[in-house]
User: Fold this.
Amino acid sequence: MLDFTLTAEQLALQQKAREFALKEVLPVAWYYDEKDDIPLPVIRKAYDAGIMNLDIPKVYGGQGLGLVEAAILTEELAAACPGLATSIFDNSLGMEPVLLSENEEIRKRYLPRILKDFKTICFATSEPLMGSDVAGIRCRAKADGEDFILDGTKYWITNGGLADYMSVFATVDPKQSHKGICAFLVEKRWPGVRVGRPIPKMGQRCSNTVGIKFDNVRVPKANVLAPPGEGFVLAMKTFGRTRPIIGAFGVGAARSAMEYAMDYAKKRQAFGMPIAGFQAIQFKIAEMYQKVETARLLTLKAAWEADQGKDPTLNASVAKLYATEVALEVVNEALQIFGGYGYTKMYPVEKLLRDVRLLRIYEGTSEVQRVIIAGAVMSQYQPAMPALEDLPLHRDADPLGTDTTEPAWRCRICGYVHYGDDAPDECPYCFFPKSAFKKAGAGATA
Assistant:
C-alpha cells in the first residue's frame, strides 16, 4: 500500500530546514550573489545546526539519515538560494564516494573529522575538456610502488576553494577509457595541490566553483577509494545517489518562483482588477503547480528507491531530468507573470532564473540523462503488452462471438490479420510471402 505521508521526524526536519533557510539563507542570498562570493558564516551555521552531513552513518557518529531526508532538506534550502544549497549539499556529494568505497579504513579516519571538526570535502571528476563524459578523464594517476602520483587539472569543482578534502577521479591511461579510472581521497594541504581563482558564473554565484591543479601529488595507498578499473563504477554509483538531490534543487527553486508569482499576481492590478483574476495567469499558475508536484514525487521516488538499496540509476536520471527542466520552465513563466519587473534585480525571479539554468548541466547534462534513460528503457524495460506480431487485432471476426474457430495469422510486415487453417501464400497488402506470417491466436478467441 502506498503512503505519501512524511513521518513526524521528516516533518520536523523539513520545518527545521525551512526556518534555517528563511532566517539564515534568504537574507544574505542577493548580497552575496552581487558579490559573487560564498557566505562562509552561513556554511558554518549550517554545520552547527546539523543541516550538513546528515548522511554520515551512525557507526561513525553521524545521524545516518537517507536520501529522502536529504531531498526534503535540500528543497527548503534551494527555495531560498539554489547556490547556497549547492554548497551546503556538496559535503554529501564529496563524501558519497567515501561511503560507497570498499576502503573501510578511510571512512574510520575521515568521516569523524568531517563530522566533528568542520571539515569540508568536494567531488572532483570534471576537467577543462571533460564534463559529463566521465570516461574521458585525462588527469593521470601513475603507480609509484604502492602509492600513486597525481598530475592534471580538475575544473568546475564546487567548494573546491574551501574544501579540506577532495574525492578525486583520475586515470592510469586515458586510452583505456572507463577501464583505467581510479579514485582517491586527497587532502588540500598536501604538496602539489593548487586551487585556482573562483570561476565567474552567470548564476549560483553564492557557491564557490574553482579549478584544482595537481602537480606530482603523492597519494598513499591508504587513500585509494577505488583502484584502476573500479573508479568509473564508483562515479556512476555516486551519481545514482546524488542526482535525485539535484532534482530537489529544481523543486525548491521552482516552488519559490511559483509562490513569488502567486503573491505578485494577487496584488498587481491591470485593467481594473488583480491579474490573478485573468484566466491566462491562472493557467500559468496551474501549470507551475502541477510541474512542482510532479517533480517532487519523482525526486522522492528516486531517493526512496536508493534508500531501499535498489539500483536508483534509472529513476535518478528521470528525477534529475524532469525536475531540472521543469525548474527552468516554472521560473521562466514566473518571470513572465512579473513582466518587466521580473527582469529587474529588484525582484527575486531573475536570480532564480540564473541559478536554475545550471541544474540542467551539472552532474550530467539533460542530454546525458536522456541517453541513460533511453538505454535503460530499451534494454531493461519489461512490456506488459504482447509483441506487435502476436496481436490478432480482430476486425473481420468477432472476438466475442462463436462464429469462427479458425486460427488467426498476422503479417509481421504490414499487420494484416488472415483467418484460416494456414497462412496465405502471399499478403494481399504488402505482397510478402507466407513466411512473413505468424500465428497470432486461435480464431475469435485469440
Observations:
- The two ends are 34 Å apart (CA to CA).
- Residues 47 and 118 are 7 Å apart (CA to CA).
- The domain at 388-445 is CATH 2.20.28.10 (Rubrerythrin, domain 2).
